Amino acid sequence: MAYLSDKQREQFQRDGVLVVPQFYPLEQVHQVQWGIYQIIGQVMLRHGVEDTRDAFSPDTFDQVFIELIQRNRAWGGEIYDAVKQIPAFLRLVAHPAHEELFNELRENAIPGMAAGGYGIRIDIPFEDKYRAMWHQEYPAQLRSVDGLVFWSPLVAITEALGPVAFCPGSHRRGILPVYQTDPQGTGRSGAYALRIRDEADVLTHYPQVAPLTAPGDLVIIDFAVMHCSGFNISNRARWSMQFRYFNFADPVGRSHGWKGSYAAGVDFTTIHPELFCSESPDEV
Known about the structure:
Blueprint (H helix, E strand, L loop, with lengths): L5 H10 L1 E4 L5 H21 L18 H7 L1 H11 L3 H7 L2 H10 L5 E13 L13 H5 L5 E7 L11 E2 L11 E3 L13 E3 L2 H5 L14 E5 L4 E2 L9 E10 L3 H5 L12 H4 L13
Antiparallel strand pairs: 1-7, 2-9, 3-7, 3-9, 4-8, 5-6
Helix pairs in contact: 2-4, 2-5, 3-4
């Protein structure tokens, strides 16, 4: 059974990004949301916060999360680390459909699941330190140049929540040189401090799309497509799931032993010094 039509495969090869509406059964998504609801309750219990939340609902599974981090930002970090260990989430990480999708989109691939390359993002309103700026996935993840991100929201994405923006077709440009910077002084480090060299010029060559997706939808993203997180100006966190798969048969990945990047304690610039610039012309 093929998950994608010929038209969808052609669109992905052309754009490097594809939205597949309602790919995951909502029941499976609700199980992840229920797990998050439970963990928020356990963090409240751990810190002696009275739990006055409404009963669980998929639409309000993160009720009081913003209030909690306003009281103590570190509690949000506890929740962030815990939710990626929810069994229902891990079942989605290893969903057999991901391997099948990889094989539909890549010939003669040997798919691998990137250790440390999956998680649940929590993009907090008006917080910029951990927002992903324009980037390609490979420098932040390594493993293999030929890789796919499977991205799916846990809340209905609105303009205010800051949808992820993509540059369709940018994957055909290959992996671009990067440099490290923290121009706003927000404390960015590691992958969050990587910026594409001559970013403003590169962006002029491509259109930008920012699809509004809903729980159950799947966005498939080529590791080389330029994309960035939108800025959340709502009163709620933007929750989303990411599963990253790579290709063991990719010659670049094979050449460096399929190393992981920052999440694995490896600095991209030591693996690909030819793609690292000490400074950007924009800052000279």
